[in-house]
Amino acid sequence: MCFVLLVEDSSTFRKSMREMLTLRFPALNIEEASDGEEALQKLENTNPDIIFMDIRLPGKNGLEVTKKIKEVNSDVEVVILTSYDIPEYRAAALRSGASHFFTKGNSGSDEIATIVRSICQKRGKDVCTGFQVPEVR
User: Fold this and answer.
1) Alpha-carbon span 106 to 39, nearest angstrom
2) Which residues on adjacent β-strands are paired with residue 82?
3) CATH number at residue 111
4) CA-CA distance, 93 to 62, in Å (whole number)?
5) Does residue 85 lie in a domain region?
């Protein structure tokens, strides 16, 4: 089963993301964190495949948290979700270790679903049923 962590201070946005992901991928395991510290605490006991990270968070910003996460777990895919489509933010996101950068409001659910499907399939995880996809030799 593919595991996603949503790190976002807006409970409304987290709820919308969760609903969209659950609708498209019912077997997806989804956890939430409202700030960077909570995300780091959750990562002590979990190993997500994908982390959706807001840049502007209370306390540590999402880029600092992403960098810290990637130092500990270089395999996790971090997808930055922000309201600010600024070239400097994109560059900083990539420098921090993020794999993808999406702008809230401009990125549709199809784009996000494509990324989730791609990452989970790349890891051999079926996002539709939750079963491991057998390796073809």
Assistant:
1) 25
2) 103
3) 3.40.50.2300
4) 9
5) yes
Whole-angstrom distance, CA of residue 127 vs CA of residue 3: 9
- Asked whether residue 32 is assigned to any structural domain, the reply reads yes
Among residues 128, 135, 137, 131, which one has the least CA distance to residue 21? Answer: 128
For 128, how many CA atoms within 13 A lie in the half-sphere containing its CB?
Answer: 2
Residue keyed to tokens 């840049």: 55
3-state secondary structure at position 7: strand
- Number of structural domains the chain divides into: 1
- For the entire predicted model, the pTM comes to 0.89
Q: What is the pLDDT along the chain (137 residues), one digit of tens a residue?
A: 899 999 999 999 999 999 999 999 998 999 999 999 999 999 999 999 999 999 999 999 999 999 999 999 999 999 999 988 889 999 999 999 999 999 887 777 889 999 999 999 998 887 765 444 444 44
Residue 127: inside a domain: no
Whether residue 28 contacts residue 2, with contact meaning beta carbons closer than 8 Å, is answered with yes
Residue 68's domain comprises 3-122
